[in-house]
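TEACHING EXERCISE
Course module: macromolecular assemblies
Task: Read the component lines below, then compare them to the predicted structure of the full complex.
Student: A.B.
Group: 4
Components provided:
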Amino acid sequence: DSGVTQTPKHLITATGQRVTLRCSPRSGDLSVYWYQQSLDQGLQFLIQYYNGEERAKGNILERFSAQQFPDLHSELNLSSLELGDSALYFCASSVGGGSGPQHFGDGTRLSIL
Amino acid sequence: GQQLNQSPQSMFIQEGEDVSMNCTSSSIFNTWLWYKQDPGEGPVLLIALYKAGELTSNGRLTAQFGITRKDSFLNISASIPSDVGIYFCAGQLVGGSQGNLIFGKGTKLSVKP
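Instructor-supplied answer key:
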């Protein structure tokens, strides 16, 4: 058990809809990272938050947004969903905002019908 | 997005065999990490490397941070059936306060039929 909790485990929805994925980091970790894993692209970094502030942005679409709350949990919002958004979405956390190991949750599997 | 070159893509193992895999990059990293992912779960951290030339072991696993800081390898000695899974290398970029990881596409370990 990594200590990173993600909910829900599975999400099935339709094109055009909006969903929210939730992540609770390990106790004591201040950074939260979101990654997308698909068969063709592998694991891709989306966005990082550190202690409530956005720290880094990767290949995140404009239809996607995230935030980190004062209790350090984070949410990833995906809107105007398209078939191609079907993927596994992982959250990871680390103590600091720069270097250091990241520990991953078990992911949310998003299926768009 | 940017990715590491990880090889081999897949390999079959027989119990007791040693296994090697490696990652190369055109970019310099200040941290290399190796993860294992089992079906339905998130990547689990195996080994973290922080210094060029560093050689680190975790049980039957040994990983090295290349001297050029552009490569890393992972060895598994005397493989056992539970070693089956997908192994990912990940590099953390030099500089700045961002901590996002760049992942290889994975090496899939399967049992020889």
